[in-house]
Each structure stands twice: as C-alpha cells, then as structure tokens.
Request: fold
Amino acid sequence: QVQLVESGGGLVQAGGSLRLSCTASGRIFSTDTMGWFRQAPGKEREFVGAVRWSGDDTLHADSVKGRFTVSRDNAKNTVYLQMNNLEPEDTAVYYCAARRGVVVRAARVYDYWGQGTQVTVSS
Reply:
C-alpha cells in the first residue's frame, strides 16, 4: 500500500506560479511511477505529468509542456509539480497518483491516489 498526501494548491492570478507537493509513504520502490492529474468540473481526469523515482523517465502533457515541471526528491519521498505562467484553463483539482511500473498517461492504471488539491487561476 502507498499513501499520498498533496499540498500547495490555492488561488493565483493568471501568469502566476504555484508548486504542488505530494509526499508518499508505505511500500515505495524505485521503479514506481508518480503521476499528476487534474480534473476540472464537468471534464474527465487529465494527465499532467509523471516521473519515476529512479529518475530515468519523465513525461509531461503537451498542454503544459514548457510551463509545468514534474520533479522528485527521493530523500523526502516527495514529488513536485511546479506550475508557471498559469492560465484560467488550468483551474482544476490536481491529484497525485502512484503506480508500479513505467510512466504512462492513462489514469486507470494508477493504483493509488491522493485526496486532491484545488488550484484556481483567476483572469
């Protein structure tokens, strides 16, 4: 089992920045992947980015590439989502998730989920 706790959401103006954190506990392996997803009201859950604890694979969605960066701190069992140049369209609940194995985009193959943190970007 893996437990995930997110933090760092909030309200920010367009063009601003936020950094989300996700701390993992439990049975964690270097081959595990940590992913970030978001879900806006009335929309499906969307892949944002992911990284393996081993650091050998990282992926970002095209919609956030160049603005968002996923990173990890293995010593703290924490992954981060640095979000720059935020847009109102980035408003959503952001979720951290974990899976055993390689980086993938599909939410359905992630086994563990955090509670989510709200990000609101005002225009």
